[in-house]
Specification:
The protein contains 13 helices and 25 strands. By secondary structure, it is of the alpha/beta class. The longest helix is centred in the N-terminal third of the chain and has 15 residues, at 27-41.
Length: 457
Amino acid sequence: MYPWIYTRAKEQPNDMALITETERWSWSELYTHAHRLASTWATIVSRGDRIALYGPSSARYIVALHAAQLLELTVVPINTRLTQTEVLRQFKQADVRLVVTDRALDTAIPCRSFSYEKEAPDLLIRHMPKQYIQSMLFTSGTTGHPKAVEQTMLNHFSSATNAARHIGSLPEDRFLIVTPLFHMSGLAVVYRAVIYGVPIVLEPHFSPERALHWITTERITHVSLVSVMLDRLLEAGLRRHSLRVVLTGGGPVPLPILTRALDRNIPVMQTYGMTETASQIATLLPEDALRKLGSAGQAIHPTQIRITRHQEIEVKGPTIMKGYFHDEEKTVNAFTADGFFKTGDLGRLDADGYLYVLDRRSDLIISGGENIYPAEVESALLSINGIQEAGVVGRFDATWGQVPVAFIVSNLDETTIRTEISQLLAKYKCPVDYIYHSVLPRNANGKLLRKQLKESL
């Protein structure tokens, strides 16, 4: 297939493509910006190179995503909430050759701004291999070590076309993006919009007031949220308006929030997916929301979902990642002999084929839609001189769903620990409370018993 932005500009040159507070670009205009940027990059990088995108959501960020595909580059979106130490570590792990950013960085890797352009020869647009690695997003395993997930052009294309069949796609659809573009939830919408040929409205920073403004003035039909966002929108007075699809991820929507939304005829569709599956692989349609309470819905065809005898969710289909970058061992271990991806999540399927996720990995903390891995936080705590032991678990929070709490063995005062950890981890990963113990519970093999810690809260 040809680059999607090229095809869209040829087929719908004058149709609206991207709307922000300051821009209203057609597909032809968006393609022109992407082509110009790609032509500039062509003197710096080569086909197959990895480029990091490190900055806030913006029209220029979306231009960069399309420019990368024109050159057959792999984009590596970086979470802007990470510390510089974490960011530089991810640059190194992904073997990044160029950083596109809006800020100064202490790195030897060439850096360019999102708006950097200069006169350059026109590109030759090529037919592209479906298996080209289009993006690499970082995730963390339960060991706490981040992994770079290789997602192919076919992964993203299949995700878009499969979703269209499952939840429908109409020519008048208009997508609102309020989630970060460095997340799968935001990135997937950019690719779906260009594949479907429908416009994006981009709001860089979520606020209920701004989201409501766009929903009402731009006839928004699709928006992706986490539960806390939906709750805040309902508090601000959200109604059905033109909405046709309100996708929610990051765990089941709490019943009080779901009931309020359905009472207003808001079409909430709860989903299950992850970075390794290039977004959603199961979605619960609104008509089933109360009948199948707590479910993530049925598998999106042709994705196959099965449950092992140990209750682990395994999935197979065209959206599943190629593997983990430069980590053959983890890639091999992530798949079964017959090609199913082992999610590490526990779940069950009912008689009608509806998936119920019982545990988002037993130790995983989901806070406001962000994944927090206890092992990563514990490792950071233990790197602080004066902390002998550390254990991290999630505690229920009415606003964020869960927040991290740390159990520690240390003589350091809490203020010192908070100062130190803030230099090592993004704010959302930092524990909200510290509970001091003389010793932490462990099994006979010395393994930390997080379950006992959680039960003590």
